[in-house]
Amino acid sequence: MARIAYDSVDAAAFEASRHLTDDGLAAWREAVTRYLDPRPDMRLLDLGAGTGSWARTFTNWYEEAQVVAVEPSEAMRARSVYQPVVAGDAAHIPLDGDSVDAVWMSTVIHHVPDLTAAAHELRRVLRPGAPLLIRSAFAGRHHGISLFRYFPEAIRVLDTYPGAADVGAAFATAGFNTVALEQVPQTTAASLHEAATTLRREAHTLLQLISDDEYATGLARLREAAKTDTKPVVDALDLLVLR
After folding, report:
1. Is residue 1 part of a domain?
2. I want to staple 49 with a disulfide (CB 3.0 to 4.6 A). Which of 69, 84, 188, 230 is the partner?
3. Is residue 26 classed as helix, strand or coil in its secondary structure?
4. Is the bond leading into 232 cis (omega within 30 degrees of zero)?
């Protein structure tokens, strides 16, 4: 079960505020392509596809690739900007064995209750030597993410997430090796003012799991900082690559 039960309000907030622009995606395209080695007949699984922004992005980047989107939340599937998206989760992937050339998981690994079970299921569907790319905020690695400057209370929630080493160890039980762990910068918002005005608590597990008072205090910090800081908001999330 996910850390939160995504309903239609959460899904709408996610669609409205968590999709990156082309500027925000630029460094991710470079990083992903470096490990993906795309080719025309590539079959890419977007596991935990949410409202479909990454699946749509991959079809734009790699026009001849086949992108398969799998998402457990009915509300997320209903709001998806990419179709088709099918029901499934990391322990129950509705695909044949040895049938995908790469797997992408974006901000979803912390929702997986049994990493070892997920590792073996992903080992089943991935072709030999194919990569698993995990985009995430991992426990203990919050310093490059601006959200935590204004909502430091959310660090305690992040610290309940699996660390990169925890994920690597769990997936090693299914024969995966860690290839790389790197931070990838992304332009999350054009300014702090934009970040403050578009922020939707329902779109962030980290913010849903702090108290109402902590959220209100953090939002006040963000709005105050936005009065003078006009620079783009650049965050660095982790990319963990396993094979």
Report:
1. no
2. 69
3. helix
4. no
Give me the pLDDT at residue 242, please.
98
Q: Say how far apart CA 149 and CA 50 lie, in whole Å.
A: 26
Q: Give the pair of three-digit tokens for residue 195.
A: 């970040």
How far apart are the C-alpha atoms of 113 and 42, rounded to whole Å? 29
User: Which ranges constitute the DSSP H helices of the chain?
Assistant: 8-17, 22-36, 53-61, 74-79, 115-125, 147-150, 155-158, 164-172, 192-198, 205-208, 212-226
Domain hosting 177: range is: 8-146+162-191+236-242
Distant-in-sequence, close-in-space partners of 200: CB < 8 Å, separation ≥ 6:
13, 14, 16, 17
Number of Cβ within 10 Å of residue 197's Cβ equals: 12
**Could you tell me if residue 98 is inside a domain?**
yes
CATH number, residue 31: 3.40.50.150
Residues 6-65: tens digit of each pLDDT: 889 999 999 999 999 988 899 999 999 999 988 889 999 999 999 999 999 999 999 999
CA distance 90 to 40: 26
The number of folded domains in the chain is 1
| pTM over cut 0.90 | yes
What is the band of 101 on the pLDDT scale with cuts at 50, 70, 90? very high
The residues facing 183 across adjacent strands are: 238
140 falls within a domain = yes
pLDDT in tens, 129-150: 999 999 999 999 999 999 999 9
